[in-house]
Amino acid sequence: MIATGGRLAAAGPRFGYRDWYLTTAVVDVEATRYSQARTASFAPRLEPADPCLVSLPFPWPAAALESASVETEPWESSLHLKEEEFSRAEALALFDYLRKSRSHGFVVSLSGGADSSAVGCLILLMAAFGLRSIGLEEFQRKLRHLGGLTVSQTDPRALLRQLLTTVYQATENSSAATRSAARHIADAIGARHLEFEVDPIVRQYTEIVSAALGLELNWRQHDVALQNIQARVRAPGAWLLANLGNALLLATSNRSEAAVGYATMDGDTCGGLSPLAGIDKAWLRRWLLWLEQSGPEGFFPIPALSVINRQVPTAELRPQDQNQSDEEDLMPYPLLDAIERAAIRDKRSPVDVCQLMQLQFPHFPVRQLGIWVERFFRLWCRNQWKRERYAPSFHLDDENLDPKTWCRWPILSGGFDAELEELREYLRTAGVGPGP
Fold first, then answer.
1. Residue 256 CA to chain centroid, in angstroms?
2. How confident is the model at residue 104 (pLDDT cuts 50, 70, 90)?
3. Residue of 39, 167, 204, 308 with fewest CB within 10 Å of its CB?
4. What is the dihedral of CA 151, 153, 157, 163, to 10 degrees?
């Protein structure tokens, strides 16, 4: 950006795929200095006649004089600017990471849910924006470490056949709906899609451990352990695919899960890069709905996402008759994200957070809000060790939880014991019972 006298003179394009861009403006530096000298304000109010930005008759490229104005692309005036920016920032970041790490593509464990589907769609957007920005020949040149992409057309889906492998890994608790959804999304974005049956491996592990301990494992007593072994069993197959293709395995956990540790370490957190670890689940679901219905400016929607957007988020790790859902295990995602924002970004106490949630979510009983607020603080403190081990993520805003680049927190702490006791006292005095 080039600015003078409190006015923006020129700005280069954002999220471009070229090696460099030339942005020019002609500025009368002396006029700018004079204007600054004659005002006591750091933001001088200049009249249109003030000659800070000029076109002078000295040798200067004519094109530069013509470009000395701020031009924006159509998407920058969109009513969905955040969705547009997110799509382009993530797509460019994935392209640069692919190029700079010299990986030969991506592998995504496609569960048929929102997070993994979003990662797959972002890779499609990476190819689409890249082709539009620099063309197929330059796109291939920048990824020449792949040995040459053999695609001769500019259809991003054709590129994804070579750049992305997805795999659905089923256990007995997986549903036909998510299997079908994963296949549907993979077809829509053009990925090479595989399906593994990993339930025999899950049973083998549980039988080995059960026999060694002389203990029959059951869902009533060993719920978390039986859920986690399913997620962990899926990791080796995904890693093997990545290694065989010299590809980059992408983890799919989001920021909401990272905040409360709702992810299996060495399971669904496996990967060399975690592109969604800075994005909350509630907003990600809104982005997927937007991508289904309209999509980025000049691109196209992905109607196949309807099979994802109409699902209730679930880990599918418990028996199907238990109807497991993420929000039943935790709390409503919009509420979780609001609590995280107030507690971690804004550093409010549990009582302050509870009072704020009463204003933002008045339809929930105060006692229930208190239970959810306490649950968040306890899970936040208990799961810092997981956040320490997350794969690198993209830093997009001021709500990132990555301890390596933004949000430091002790791995072990007092767990807000005193502050949570204040919350219980607040709930008691508010007349809502003995507290959570």
1. 10
2. very high
3. 204
4. 20
User: What residues form DSSP beta bridges with 167?
Assistant: 109, 194
Q: What share of the chain is helix, strand, coil (3-state, %, to 5)?
A: 50, 5, 40
* DSSP code of residue 53: B
Q: Is 41 exposed, middle or buried (CB count within 10 Å of its CB: 0-12, 13-18, 19+)?
A: exposed
Beta strands 2-4 and 7-10, pairing class? antiparallel
8 Å CB contact between 280 and 254: yes
| Confidence bin at 42 (pLDDT 50/70/90) | low
Give me 391's structure tokens. 């794969």
Instruction: For 255-272, write each residue's pLDDT tens digit.
Output: 999 999 999 999 989 999
Whether this prediction's pTM lies above 0.85 is answered by yes
> Pick from 76, 61, 52: which is nearest to 24 by CA?
61
Find the angle CA(408)-CA(413)-CA(418) to the nearest 5 degrees.
120
SS3 state of residue 292? helix
Q: Return all residues near 240 (Cβ < 8 A) that are at least 6 apart.
A: none
In whole angstroms, how far apart are CA 195 and each of 145, 192, 199, 245, 423?
28, 11, 12, 17, 48
Which two structure tokens, joined as six digits, stand for 255?
Answer: 């920021």
Residue 288 CB neighbours (<10 A) = 21
Tokens of 38: 């004659």
Domains of the chain: 1-71 (no CATH), 79-327 (3.40.50.620), 331-436 (1.10.10.1140)
